[in-house]
Each structure stands twice: as structure tokens, then as C-alpha cells.
Amino acid sequence: MGLPGRHGKQGIIGPVGLKGEPGTHGIKGEKGDIGESGEQGIMGSAGLRGEPGTKGQKGDIGPTGMPGTKGEPGESISIPTVVVAPLTLTVNETQSASFQCSASGNPEPTIVWIKMGNQSEIAQSAVSGGMLKLENVTGNDAGLYKCLGINILGRNHASVQLVVNGKHVLSS
């Protein structure tokens, strides 16, 4: 082995070498695995529904109307028509007298008897179903009587005459 040398001067550097060809690219590394997505979460339960409100009471049902017969026209409304019989009646005192009055119309008319001269209605006890019946007649019952038929559309009348023969005293 030799003796350690002394350091000498540095040597001359040689010429620069030519640049080499570019190197090829390295192989690209494999792509790493993408993490898996998480599973969809479970839907929560629905909230509680409020209690339904109280319903109002239903009103009363009104009365039903009268049904008409199908296919037939309704009745027309009319002012009363009045018919009396007999037109004149002659009786003796203490006998009874009666007159019949009928009134037709729609709506159905009410029948009222009036004695002319005093313009007052005859007592209901003397009138029944349109018949005027006078018991035990006197001269004061003689006169003109009027039968009225009255409804909401108006009134109509017919008149009768009562003749009362007085008692005759036979002279000997």
C-alpha cells in the first residue's frame, strides 16, 4: 500500500457531455379504490295527527210539502162560487125553516150566513155544513138572508127570502 498522498491540485475538468435523450415517462400508478357510498338512512316515523274538530249540529228539517200527482196539472185557485136553495121559502109561525148554501173555490171557502137589515152574522148554532136552520120561527125571522162564500181571493154571495105567515084566529 502506498503512502498517503499529498493533496495535489485539482485536476482539469473535462468537456461537458452531451445531453441524453429524454427518458420515457414512468408507468402511472393504479388508481386507488373509491370508498363505497353509505346506505340510505331509514325514514323516521310520521308525526302524530291532531284530533279532528267537532262537527256542528245539523238544523231541523222543515215540513215536507204536499206532493202533487205526477203528470197532472195542479188545481187552479179561484174566487168562491155560491149556490143556495130554495130561493124563497114560506112557512107558518112556530114551524122550522131551513136553507142550504154551498160554496166552491180554491182554497176552500168559509160559509157565513147574514140576515139583511141588521147586518149581523147568524149564530153558529143555527148553521151547520152550510145549512141555515131556524126553529120555531116568528114574524121577526121573516126577511132576506145572504149566504157568503169567503176565501183569500175574495167573496161571493147568494140571497134567499123567508116569508112567515102569522097565526090566524078563526072567528065564529
Explain what the structure shows.
The chain is mainly β and 172 residues long. The chain has a domain at 82-165: Sandwich (Immunoglobulin-like). The chain is 0% helix and 34% strand. It contains no helices and nine strands. A five-stranded mixed sheet has the order 2-9-8-4-5, with no helix packed on it. Strands 1-3-7-6 form a four-stranded antiparallel sheet, with no helix packed on it.
CATH class of the domain at 82-165: Mainly Beta
Distance between the termini: 220 Å
Q: Could you report the average pLDDT, rounded to the nearest whole number?
A: 77
Work out the radius of gyration.
Answer: 65 Å
**Shape estimate:** rod-shaped
CATH architectural group of the domain at 82-165: Sandwich
Total strand segments = 9
- Count of DSSP-assigned helices: 0
Element order, helices and strands?
EEEEEEEEE
CATH topology of the domain at 82-165: Immunoglobulin-like
Strand content: 25-35%
Query: What's the arrangement of strands in the largest beta sheet?
Result: 2-9-8-4-5
Query: Can you say what the CATH homologous superfamily of the domain at 82-165 is?
Result: Immunoglobulins
Query: What structural category do the secondary elements indicate?
Result: mainly beta
| Sheet having the most strands | 5 strands, mixed
- Percent helix range: under 10%
List keywords for this structure.
Immunoglobulin-like, 34% strand, five-stranded mixed β-sheet
Helices and strands in order, then pairings?
Layout: E1 78-85, E2 88-92, E3 97-106, E4 110-115, E5 120-121, E6 127-128, E7 131-134, E8 143-151, E9 154-165
Parallel strand pairs: 2-9
Antiparallel strand pairs: 1-3, 3-7, 4-5, 4-8, 6-7, 8-9
